[in-house]
Specification:
This protein has 164 residues and is mainly α. Helix content is 54%, strand content 7%. The protein contains two helices and five strands; from the N terminus they run H-H-E-E-E-E-E. A three-stranded antiparallel β-sheet has the order 1-2-3, with no helix packed on it. It is flat.
């Protein structure tokens, strides 16, 4: 009988520890929810002061200083975004092919070709031009042995049997 008594004590101990862990997890979840509520409240307080600052209201010196720093960051972001736009426009101009070098539909180094509509460089296998949206006609596949035209999914030439 002592064995069963000992087994019962162990089972009760495990059950108590499990219940304690469940209770601790519930309390930790409540703590996390309260911390999230605090952060939300801080954000709302900040938004309230920011809206007063934007409206031209007179705030205390500390709040005005913080708002001025935030405004400085907004101004810096606007400058950075303008610089990004300038760089992208510059790169776009550089990436436009020269009219003399542009041969619409001609493969370029076996990896890309030009759009027949706008002249933009497009990768082989592309279905639509990323610049103008025109459908790109797939390049013809030719047999390396006899030059016969191959279907896009052909593994062997139907004319000579060579591997495509």
């Amino acid at each position: 009988m002592a064995f069963f008594d000992k087994l019962g004590e162990i089972t009760k101990s495990v059950g108590d520890k499990t219940n304690d862990m469940i209770e601790i997890n519930k309390l930790n979840a409540k703590i996390k929810a309260e911390r999230a509520a605090i952060e939300t409240g801080k954000a709302e307080l900040g938004a309230l002061y920011w809206s007063k600052f934007e409206a031209g209201a007179k705030l205390d010196a500390d709040a005005m200083e913080l708002c001025a720093k935030i405004q400085g960051s907004f101004d810096a972001i606007a400058g950075f975004e303008a610089e990004i736009k300038r760089i992208k426009e510059e790169n776009e101009k550089k990436s436009q092919p020269e009219p003399a070098a542009c041969v619409p539909g001609a493969p370029l180094s076996g990896e890309s070709m030009f759009c027949s509509n706008c002249g933009a460089k497009v990768a082989l296998g592309t279905k639509f031009c990323p610049q103008c949206g025109k459908t790109i006609a797939p390049a013809k596949r030719l047999c390396p042995a006899c030059g016969a035209e191959l279907a896009s999914d052909a593994k062997f030439c139907p004319e000579c049997g060579a591997k495509a």
